[in-house]
């Protein structure tokens, strides 16, 4: 295809503002998916995406428009955990539709995505979506949007992804305003990898955006970062299913298949060239996503360990951001310390492990990575609180984030109180409109990974939105709090906490464990300690009576039901020493409010 007829764009928005639904209408209007096969959020292909109604993986689709243009649309995930997916999608585009729910207005991820698109120099088309909603206020939010990106409120398109209203005009606007891709057709081939996924049947499928030159089928391709070469088994475009094509030229978006089995062989951000005539300079790539949050994953049944290891290996094929290494816990046995981009990522990985590999897992309270320097000059990264060193510590550094909260005026006080309670420093405050305020905080990542978002939502009746990005690390006064059951430290319960909060933390954990751990045949003392100093204690009293004693022998069904219910209750129990501890206890640790 002649590059002047190609338009590459993505749709960016706050979560739930309707990206996937708008993408559906585009697929229909351009005839790529016919009425019969259409289903809601067509591009959310994973089961877990469909159930949760969220997009996790980006998707690229090629759509013909008005017989002369080719539109490549890239649908992106909205959740903050997956913003690295958004940034790689932006690399492949010249333009972005900035979608805003006309009943909600600008939200935190609207801003974050807009800034990202501006950094990539993309043409930005402002669009108000969901104008069919009775609560829509397109005039008001057009003002807000225009104020944000500059320009005239009248230039904001008004569409409904649900009814299809305005979508034809939107497609025409894309042709008009998104620049055609520019590249050198005669130069050696260079293609940027913006995604790669593992498919059990086909191996790794690599998604590329051609920048210069051309790649033909049956060529040998070369990955520029490693110089590894692979034979091309198939290449083509996605429309909406993978369709083999006779090659990809300047500006085109498509896929390559080599039969390679591991996505790490086909790294996102790498440049693909051809071995017969390789390019000399790779395209500017970008960094691998780094895990921000760690948690221990242990099989409930120790004999499932090999299954868990294979399952993690398999998921890793498809998820470059997932990190894991074996670890042993005296309380939980053999398991893995796993690194994630955030809590949603953790939840999704865990759910997939349980569902797709039929595993029952215990996950420990999530924590961030601490960098500890010792007085003797050595330095270590602590990804597991139980490994926090006991010797002479010089400094402990913890990761910080820049958090942006958008909130209606009325809740500014509540938001500030929350952020201050989490050791936040206010960096700035702006009024986006007379009623809506943007607050910028510097916050320790550890303070927001667990229940910050829930707290924010409940304190603002659901009206505030949050986005954050990692910034740097700062020295901090942190200590390790251990929890002891019957006098034995349970490594899986150890946590790293700010000194000023350690006492309150120890107390609340001890209380929480007392209420979560069922009574046993014997008394169980619970203690919280910093080093050798006990800072809080609680006791779980012993049970006296056998549960069956109540049933005075006669009623068999009642007895069976009782036993069954007991078994049910035991499902997620783990023996720690002689004590039975429920799964909730392992993650209850961080929700201290
Ligand atoms: P995404 O997270 O940005 O991909 O948003 P989705 O496309 O998954 O949509 C989020 C929710 O908004 C879903 O329940 C959609 O049915 C609904 N929705 C999306 N677009 C529209 C629209 O134009 N009008 C109305 N009334 N609802 C919409
Ligand atoms: Mg979506």
UniProtKB/TrEMBL annotation:
It catalyses: GTP + H2O = GDP + phosphate + H(+). NCBIfam families: lepA (TIGR01393), small_GTP (TIGR00231). Residues 4-182 form the Tr-type G domain. Belongs to the GTP-binding elongation factor family. LepA subfamily. Belongs to the TRAFAC class translation factor GTPase superfamily. Classic translation factor GTPase family. LepA subfamily. It is a peripheral membrane protein. It comes from the Bacteria. This is Elongation factor 4. PANTHER family: TRANSLATION FACTOR GUF1 HOMOLOG, CHLOROPLASTIC (PTHR43512:SF4), TRANSLATION FACTOR GUF1-RELATED (PTHR43512). One of its GO terms (biological process) is positive regulation of translation. GTP binds at residues 16-21, 129-132. The keyword RNA-binding does not apply. Required for accurate and efficient protein synthesis under certain stress conditions. May act as a fidelity factor of the translation reaction, by catalyzing a one-codon backward translocation of tRNAs on improperly translocated ribosomes. Back-translocation proceeds from a post-translocation (POST) complex to a pre-translocation (PRE) complex, thus giving elongation factor G a second chance to translocate the tRNAs correctly. Binds to ribosomes in a GTP-dependent manner. InterPro entries: EF-4 (IPR006297), EFG_III/V (IPR035647), EFG_V-like (IPR000640), G_TR_CS (IPR031157), LepA_C_sf (IPR038363), LepA_CTD (IPR013842), LepA_IV (IPR035654), P-loop_NTPase (IPR027417). GO terms for molecular function: GTP binding; GTPase activity; ribosome binding; translation elongation factor activity. It is found in: Cell membrane. GO terms for cellular component: plasma membrane. It holds the Pfam family GTP_EFTU.
